[in-house]
Amino acid sequence: MPPRLPGCNDVTSFEDVKTAIRRNKLLGMWAAEKLGLAGLDAEAYSDSLAMGTIDPGSCDVFSKIRKDFDDAGVVQSDEQLLQVMNDLMLQAASQMPATGGGNPDAAAVMLARNLMSR
Q: What is the DSSP string of 72-118?
C-alpha cells in the first residue's frame, strides 16, 4: 500500500475534481517523458491518467505510474514520485481559474460531473 498521497481521496468538491484532473494531466506528461513517450503517445498516456477510468482523487494514479515505471525499468523512488505529485497539485491549483470565472476545460467539467454524481 503506497504512503498517504497528496490529493488521495481528498476530492470533495467540483473544484477539487477539476484540480486533480489537471494535476493528473501534468503528471501524465511528466511520466510519459520518463517512460520515453513523445508526441501523440505522450498525450494519450497523459489523457489516460486525466480522463480514463482512474478516479482523479484516488491512489490509483500513483499505483498506475509506479507499475508503469517498474515495468519499464524507470528508476524513481516513491518519495520522488510523491514530491512530483505534490508539486504538480500546487501547480494545477494555481492554473485553475478563480471560482465563478474563467473557462474550464469541457472534458474536465464532464468528468467532474460524472464523478460527483457517484
A: HT----HHHHHHHHHHHHHHHHHHSPPTT-S---HHHHHHHHHHHT-
Q: What is the pLDDT of residue 55?
A: 61
Q: Which three cell numbers stand for residue 84?
A: 512530483
pLDDT at residue 58 greater than cutoff 70: no
- Number of domains within the chain: 1
Q: How many residues does the chain have?
A: 118
**7: nearest Cα among 54, 15, 64, 16:** 16
Q: Which domain holds residue 31?
A: 14-95
Residue 1 pLDDT:
43
User: 32 near 46, Cβ under 8 Å?
Assistant: yes
**Structural domain contains residue 5:** no
